[in-house]
């Protein structure tokens, strides 16, 4: 027993001796550091002590990102809290929903104060709101308020920095601590920290901000927007570089970057390391130190060579000839090159840790961008090489869709912001992420119409839905119905004879009451009379009586046979997103006049199907009435024969597709819009039986040839005003006409489904 205790004691003693000889030196060193900790506390660990970690780099290079002038995470958090004093804001706690119940989602912009400077970009934002369907001039009707004070640039070193914002907004009687207010911001903070500081307390206001940090972003309340330049177009915007449903050619470069290299300060770490992935072949990474006032003071040994290589390549050429584009953070998290890459169909490779991506609440960026990590920069080349070509193509096509749907103009950026906020007011009636991330996009899908995909004309093919097998005929009448010989009665008989007709709705656009039911012809389908308001835009109102997907729009003097109606409807069921009809017109650019022209000459080109005899989906009634601002509908009501042009422009803007012409047995003659009393025809409509003279047959290139008559002049004015409002010409030309199988073939009539279409 004594021997056993002796061995245990010797073993314990030997262990202490080994610990002292082999570990004592390190223990004394750590104890020394612990004593020094109270004397000099470090803001951030800098692992440059050679005794602790062998250094493989110059200590000065490692310390560069840890510039003592930069803020520590704790200090940055304190700066954020100074701005977001109501950091726990949610829609349920900081937004008054009751303001939106009576008048819906209306937005009020504060009136401009005399002498208050406003930047060009902020003027575009205010203009986008004021010319939209959301705007109201009455603050009592408003659900959301927009300040007239320019809050875009909150860098106090900037010339556009507005001072004393706190004092000014506290004097607004509508401010109410920021409740139900929306504040736009593109630049926050200043050198060297570039924090999210705005220089004033936003209170309970919603912040729509570029370069949003995920730590300061309040999910479900704030909105992250993209950083865009002052030259970003107000409306319309340039289209993407990849055509819809097209396969791009194989590009020369796999991965590219060309931009500034920050030598010191925040954001310099990532950009200083980009040269490591450059191989000069399919990966091009070019940086320059030559920017800023004192760049030569901080230049390193690489600067001169980098500056020479930088000038050898054109930025736009690299952008459009590469599959992937690196989008690193700048001084702030966002950068202009993000939108530039989207437009060029160059898949963004994001290297900006902590960036809340634009409209991430609605947009699935995993389908259009590669989100990388700044710490794993060297793995980016191998990661993008592993992406399958089919997925690369899907990425590229999605970049084009997102660019065109949400980012190509200031209007779309602002309207997307407002629609995201509007969706929060009624979650059961909000758009799903599928609607936001599929054609035609969330802005063109109205949740008030429906939330079921099968009710829209865009998703039949992708999801296996099909439109209803019946249609509703909508006949606009502007004159009294009399004997059975009148065109309207013959039209009712022909349409009601169709096996696909569910009902006939007559829009009575006359002050005098319609004839009694006994004077209307007997038909096999229900006939409903609706009293209109004598406005041309009434024919596209979403009447509750229309329950079928398909609408056959007709004028009272249209002449169609039952076979023509049946065939046109069968064509429309194959193309439910387009306008399908009989009489067509076309537009053209007149270089002599410098404006758009309009012609009815019978050529191989067509871009407009007149709604005097056309099928389309009933959803376009809701878009026409609820999506378009009131100003456009007033334009239609003021210019005769303009409503069908606007409907064609709207459908083309939504679908990016031209209309379809079908075979017609009889030649359509366009009515002349003449002011008349109600008894002889409603204002802006032809008298009963009155027709226009034949369209001039001069070449379309001559604007005078098609504008020789007053109606054509009005149509050209309408066309140009619509192009100005949309910011571009949405109409697309086509040479397609669809005929029945065996149409005019020398075969037996018994083999033809629509033989009557061939009769003169």
Detailed description of the structure:
The protein is 30% helix and 13% strand. With 760 residues, it is of the alpha/beta class. Helix 7 (268-273) links the parallel strand 8 (253-260) and strand 9 (283-288). The termini are far apart. 40% of the residues are buried.
Percentage of residues in helical conformation? 25-40%
Number of E-type strands: 23
Strand content: 5-15%
The profile of the biggest β sheet is:
8 strands, mixed
What count of helical segments does DSSP give? 23
Which structural class fits the helix and strand makeup?
Answer: alpha/beta
Low-pLDDT residue intervals, each spanning 5 or more residues: 27-70, 481-485, 669-708
Shape: elongated
Oligomer: single chain
Rounded radius of gyration (Å): 34 Å
Cα-to-Cα separation, first versus last residue: 127 Å
Mean pLDDT: 83
Strand order of the largest sheet: 15-14-13-16-21-17-22-23
Keywords: Disulfide bond, Endoplasmic reticulum, Glycoprotein, Glycosyltransferase, Membrane, Signal-anchor, Transferase, Transmembrane, Transmembrane helix
Pathway: Protein modification; protein glycosylation
GO cellular component, one term: endoplasmic reticulum membrane
Domain Glycosyl transferase: 471-743
